What we know:
Blueprint: H1 3-13, H2 46-57, H3 80-86, H4 89-92, H5 104-121, E1 125-127, H6 133-150, E2 157-161, H7 167-174, E3 178-182, H8 192-198, E4 203-209, H9 221-230, E5 234-238, H10 251-254, E6 258-260, H11 263-266, E7 281-283, E8 295-298, E9 303-306, H12 323-359, E10 375-378, H13 389-398, E11 405-406, E12 415-418, H14 426-445, H15 447-451, H16 464-469
Parallel strand pairs: 2-3, 2-4, 4-5, 5-6
Antiparallel strand pairs: 1-7, 6-7, 8-9, 10-12, 11-12
Helix pairs in contact: 3-12, 5-12, 6-7, 12-14
Bound molecules: pyridoxal-5'-phosphate.
Amino acid sequence: MTVELIFEQTRTGRKGYSLPSTDVPAYRLPNAYGRQMVTPLPEVSEPQVMRHFVNLSVLNHHVDKNFYPLGSCTMKYNPKINEETSRLHGYTRIHPLQPLHTIQGALSLMYELGEYLKAIVNLDAITLQPAAGAQGEFTAISMFKAHFNTKNEARKYILVPDSAHGTNPASVNFSGFQPLTLPSSDNGLVNVEKLIELMTPEVAGLMLTNPNTLGLFEKNVKRITRIVHDKGGLVYLDGANLNALLGITKAGDMGFDAVHFNLHKTFSTPHGGGGPGSGPVAVRQNLQPYLPVPAIVSDGRSYQLNFDVPNSIGKIQSFYGNFLVMVRAYTYLRIVGKDGLKDISRSSILNANYIIQSLKDDYLLPYTDYCMHEGVLSGRKLKDAGLRTLDIAKRLLDYGLHAPTIYFPLIVSEALMIEPTDSESKETLDHFIAVMKTILKESSENPDLLKNAPHNTPVRRLDEVKAIKDLKIRWKT
Ligand SMILES: *Cc1c(COP(=O)(O)O)cnc(C)c1O
């Protein structure tokens, strides 16, 4: 096959796609950059190719293969229809620099998604630009900074609970503030007395995760947001745990000034392995002047981009953000509807409590309150057998299950953070519980079984430090 033929095929394969202007010359790669010889690709039949890829696809663990209770990550089922809508040619073959009148459909989808998200958290304005939760945090805390700059207030610190995700203090630093640790009480919730003490005029606000990373709902949340507001501060909700709150309570009602969504978690985009993500940020009216540009606006007839936002923190992500993740979230929201949202949170809360209550007498439950959509056990009991939580995680792989999140949150030693999500059946939960009980039994009867696990995965236990320090990203050297 010659180079010329390959390009011919590409061109004809794009039937139906019309460029905005017809005077664009057909694209031709200069010969010097073309392939000079026939590539020695293996000649194999279709069934062989299918088998190759099907077998490859199950070497690693993923949600389509089995249970994936990775706490804080909301590894729920990703409906296949999301993939269909996000692959519609009308969405995949547009260019971010196309004239606005040719992308009205995409703009209307983003605008409507923004409206849905605002309603879900009861806040006033939104940006869809951030490409992940962490970037959403950075966006919002930068807006806090702009707010205090406008008021000529040189506040230095943002409070971050000791149970928070590591991205919180990182975002604080990136936005030009310094993080100040807010300790938790013995019950795992914010220590309110300590908050009152730390909330000085030097403090710009608080980043709170609710439910927190222990899966516990901050019962005093309204009091907490009031304490910060009374001192002129702002309060941010890390919305990564939104799967627990849908249709039940709203960030705006709890007193938060800003919140990020992790569309890839709560609204179902496959995100194992680090992407793609989308972290829209919704804010209260007082922060609207600082939102990134451009804002998508509508006059009821068409959609336009508004760059005329004088106090905006600027652009924080190229073009519109991760548009196809937005298409998936939009599809998901349209399908589940308002009532469905509530069912999602109720099921995820029920599923998490079912697991935690079934395992709390076997493993240790450091914070005994009922949890929300996830719960945290400790593998501390296994220390007597010379075993760690890491060994449980590796042994789970032998049973074809992914491990929970381990060693996080940092305030629980040997933590096992379990998030079953809403989309798992009782049979799956029972199976996981049974496997966890079996592993506990193995730990006393035959600790080596855990110590040397996994036994039946394509790659056995890695030296994780060496794997990072001596990174090899090629199959063969
Ligand atoms: C996942 C997560 C984040 C960060 O979100 P990304 O989309 O991964 O950047 C922040 N906080 C909590 C509690 C999280 O679980």
